[in-house]
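User: My collaborator and I are trying to settle a disagreement about how two of our proteins should look. Neither of us wants to argue from intuition anymore, so we agreed to look at predicted structures for both before our next call. Could you fold the first one, then the second, and keep them clearly separated?

Assistant: That sounds like a sensible way to settle it. I'll keep them separate. The first protein:
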Amino acid sequence: MLGSVAEFVSPWGVLLIIFAVVAVVCVVWFAVRHFRKPKDKEKRRRMEINQRGRLGDATVTEVDAGIIFYEYSVGGVGYVATQDVSQLHEHIPADTHRLIGPATFKYFPENPANSIVLCEEWSGLRMTLLSNNRSKTPPKPE
């Protein structure tokens, strides 16, 4: 009859098996983490900044073909940034020129260049009034 497994596997063999299992787990983790689709990486970045980021004031300078151009400063250092918002089109009005002007942004304090003005759960965009609506008086409360 066959004896126990311990009779056939030396202590070095056990360590080798454990090492092989750990190596396989590491390879799977690396593959899942680093071979995601770019749009998934961008969404994860946006959500991370939304959850852990700090708020600041920015100025949207241009909106063109799903990209928002904005400027801000942190600690006296000026930044010019863009954000691809093509995946967030349902959060942006059709008349994008109304977004130009003041906005709020979120950023990582350890890397202020990593910032957003819009994500799935938050928006720092402020819609400016159209010039022809500015002359109209707001309705009086009743």
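The second protein, kept apart from the first:
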Amino acid sequence: MYSLVKIELLKMFARGRTYIALGAILCIVFAILLALYIDGENFFQFQTQNLRDSFLFEGHLLNGYLASYIILTALLVHIPFLIALVAGEMVAGESAAGTLRLILIRQASRTEVLSAKFIALMLYSVLMVLLLAASTMILGVLLFGKGDLFVVRDTICVFNSEDTTWRLLSAFAFAIPGMGVVAAIAFMFSVFSDNSITPVILTMVIIIAFMILSAINLSLFKAVKPLFFTTYMNNWRLFFDEVPNTGKLLTSLGVLVLHIFICFGISLWKFRSKDILS
């Protein structure tokens, strides 16, 4: 299995899409940090203008931790597309090119081949989040320095710098299974399709549809909202409550991991019966 995973990783990093996704993350992070460096103070004042009549703001609140939080909020909505771009090609791309036939005539079983592809994809998803975390936090601190993190949600929370690092790292870690679900869904569609673009489109349609339905305040959508994986992906924000809700975090993590296994199970069922050799 180790050899198969290694081969899949080598093939993955031989494709241009892989580097497009990684490069896009770095470019977007750099662009946001540059914009904050040029006009960040005005942006922060605009975001807090309704609070300035009631609170006195002192100190350097625009710092590397706040920049990391802003980027985390913005990019976790867009990274799914970059992951789906790579995941959609894992099976469908090779099926369309005919290389999947050559792989399956060897000794490795279909279960082993698909499992190796899936593991390689999960490792790539982890790499994407780690790259986002490292580039955001390192560049953010280098440009803006450290400081207290000011977060406005249902309540206003200010975390000192010693209490902020673990919250940011935990939020990035929690994003890993969320992105894993996106990768698993795109991978599942890739098994069902012979076109590498179709899985990307279907995955993004599902994500956007779930987000829209979750935002509509109607009883029907409230009832089905707990079934949407997007409901749990954004629960990394719970780490920025004064006291994180551990029960809700563990439930969200369990639901996301369950979605990953279900998608892989469906993918494996389809791949075993898929007519590839004809």
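Some points you might bring to the call about the second protein. The first strand starts at residue 149 and ends at 152. The first helix runs from residue 2 to 12.
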